[in-house]
Design a protein that fits this description.
CATH topology: Rossmann fold
Shape: globular
Strand content: 15-25%
Structural class: alpha/beta
Strand order of the largest sheet: 1-2-3-5-4-6-7-8-9
Number of domains: 1
Order of helices and strands: EEEEHEHHEHEHEHEH
Radius of gyration: 17 Å
CATH superfamily: Alpha/Beta hydrolase fold, catalytic domain
């Protein structure tokens, strides 16, 4: 890991940019907390520059609770090299949605499974580097989407002890089987009227998770209309499980 910049935000939170090989990322650490702190990995749909305002708001919230937060760029997004196969799958998805046609399993598999296959090992490598930094000691939570990435990461990474998953992306059938291996406490956020989400698939995925403690927090509204109290409930979930 190579730290490339550092700046202090107006609330005292330190924002560090870094690269891990060719993968860019951002780490936020509380400015007023001493000693090793828990870490929350912030998942997102790709495009660190585009997503930065929303990510930094989530990181500030985490820092206020005494947690560090970190994120990395998804494969094929932002400034990372494009994948022709992924770009083709995205184009096929757009055409299906614009035509009002069902999105077939083939498109979903080609769009999501290669992304999961590359992103999850990168997240685990980033976690190795982040936990080696002074001031970060775990435990570790995962928060966000893409939900298939979060599902596999929660299934294979033993250092993740709790997860807040954002429903709102297409889910390959293979991920439903992986969900049965997820046993950490879960808090799943679902926007009921999300125009880009298969609501029934999100409900079926929630049912498939093997966790004994799992909560579904569903709210009316579209993809970006998550109410503040839903975010507060997710923060309380992490406060219970990461402290």
């Amino acid at each position: 890991m190579r730290l490339t910049s550092e700046r202090r935000l107006d609330d005292g939170v330190l924002e560090h940019t870094f690269t891990l090989g060719d993968v860019p990322g951002i780490l936020w650490t509380p400015g007023s907390v001493s000693g090793p702190v828990p870490l929350i990995l912030l998942g997102h749909p790709g495009g660190l520059h585009r997503m930065h305002p929303r990510l930094v708001a989530r990181a500030r919230h985490s820092a206020a609770d005494g947690f560090a937060a970190a994120t990395i760029e998804l494969p094929g997004s932002g400034d990372r090299p494009r994948s022709p196969a992924l770009e083709e799958a995205r184009a096929d998805l757009r055409r299906a949605l614009e035509a009002g046609e069902p999105v077939g399993d083939d498109i979903v598999d080609r769009l999501v499974l290669p992304l999961v296959g590359q992103a999850v090992p990168e997240w685990r490598t980033a976690l190795d580097a982040l936990l080696a930094l002074p001031g970060i000691g775990g435990p570790v939570g995962y928060s966000g989407g893409v939900i298939s990435v979060g599902t596999r990461l929660a299934a294979v990474e033993p250092r993740i002890t709790a997860a807040v998953l954002f429903a709102g992306s297409f889910v390959p059938r293979a991920i439903f089987e992986e969900a049965r291996r997820v046993t950490v406490p879960l808090h799943v956020l679902l926007q009921w009227d999300d125009e880009g989400n298969d609501r029934q698939a999100a409900l079926d995925l929630f049912d498939a998770f093997g966790s004994k403690e799992k909560t579904l927090h569903a709210n009316m509204g579209g993809h970006t209309g998550v109410p503040q109290f839903a975010g507060d409930a997710a923060a309380q979930f992490f406060a219970r499980h990461l402290r």
